[in-house]
Each structure stands twice: as C-alpha cells, then as structure tokens.
Design goal:
It contains six helices and ten strands. It is α/β, with parallel strands linked by helices. The protein has a domain at 44-184. The strands form three sheets. It has a six-stranded parallel β-sheet with strand order 3-4-6-8-9-10. The longest helix is centred in the first third of the chain and has 14 residues, at 22-35.
Length: 203
C-alpha cells in the first residue's frame, strides 16, 4: 500500500502474509534494492521475537523500533552486534534481564528513546554518550538532572549531546520544579545571538 502523511513526504509500506516463509523477506529486500538503486536506509519495526530473528536478512537498517511486550537486554546486545550502524533506536518494550552497562553500544547511539525508563532513568541519563536521549514514563531525580547539566557544561562528559528529554507518567508530578533546576544551573535566556536561532531536532 502507499501512504501520504501530512508532511507531504511519500512513504511506501509493503506487507506480506506468509509470516513463516523467510524467503519472502529475501524477495522483498531484492525488490527494494531494484526499486531504489541508491540503497536508502531502512527503518525496522520489531513486534515479536520471531521477527527479531528473521530481520537479520534485511540490509541497510539504520533506525529500529522495538515494540515487543518484553525485550531481553542480551537480545539488544546481539542486535547491535549484528547491526553496528544504527543511528536511532526506539524501545517501547519492558527491558528484562541484566542491567545494561555504561559500555553498552545502546548508549552510544545518536538517538535513543526508551518509553518505559521508570526507575532506571537516572542510570540511562548517566550512561548515555550519544546525541539525543528521550525517556518516557521517567522517574528522575533533581540530582540526576544537575549531574547531567554540570558534566555537560564542564565538558567532562556528554560531548556529543544536543538534547535530553524526560517525561513523567501521566498524573504523576515530578519531585522538583524545572524552574528551580534552571535557576540552580545558572541557565540564561535564549537570545538567538550566541546560539542558533533555529535548531533541527531530529533524534
């Protein structure tokens, strides 16, 4: 099928029904390579453990969305080993297994979004070394934010960082006010002179 979103950018979606036939994925990959000779990057959305395993057939994947109910951290490690060129990863799944360490390739990806960060939010913020980090359903402390800001300002960490976004669960208030955080971190107004007037936010 063909879909035209509000942005007026054409996207194409191909679906196949024979889910147990791995050859279909190979045929699809060949078909796409024939249509697009310049080998455009592919975005992969994984909704089951089976599709996670069979997805290795597809080439040129740079952006991946995990939408499983649960996702083992060992599976993430294997996926990023097989596909080291990921530019962005979005995780809607509940992460299970051993906690991810600072050296994990996941924290080095340019754009990372975790929708169920919960009590691990502060650790994810501390370990991240990419460009844009988005954490939803986040349980984050004032001290975690101050630590990120101070390290970024002092250039002791977060050298590639452009943005960190945290969002608390609905109907749950933060334990601190962001106005106080901005004041305590000596933030200054955006004047458009010392900083760019426009910033393209695309994690």
């Amino acid at each position: 099928c063909t879909k035209k979103p509000p942005t007026q950018i054409w996207t194409h979606v191909l679906e196949y029904l024979e889910k147990e036939d791995d050859n279909v994925l190979e045929f699809l990959q060949t078909h796409l390579e024939f249509l697009f000779a310049n080998q455009p990057p592919s975005q992969l959305k994984i909704e089951s453990t089976n599709s996670l395993q069979t997805s290795e057939i597809i080439d040129n994947v740079t952006d991946t969305i995990f939408s499983l109910d649960e996702l083992e951290t060992t599976e993430i490690k294997h996926f990023l080993t097989v596909r080291p060129n990921q530019k962005s990863v979005e995780i809607h799944s509940e992460l299970t297994g051993r906690s991810l360490k600072r050296v994990s390739k996941l924290f080095k990806i340019q754009g990372l979004a975790i929708h169920e960060s919960g009590s691990m939010t502060s650790k994810y913020m501390d370990n991240f070394s990419g460009r844009c980090l988005l954490l939803f359903n986040a349980d984050v402390t004032y001290s975690a934010w101050i630590t990120v800001i101070e390290k970024w300002k002092n250039k002791t960490a977060y050298h590639k960082l452009h943005a960190v976004v945290t969002r608390a669960p609905r109907n749950v208030s933060q334990e601190f006010h962001f106005g106080d955080l901005l004041f305590d971190s000596d933030s200054i107004p955006w004047d458009g002179l010392r900083r760019p007037r426009n910033f393209m936010f695309d994690p």
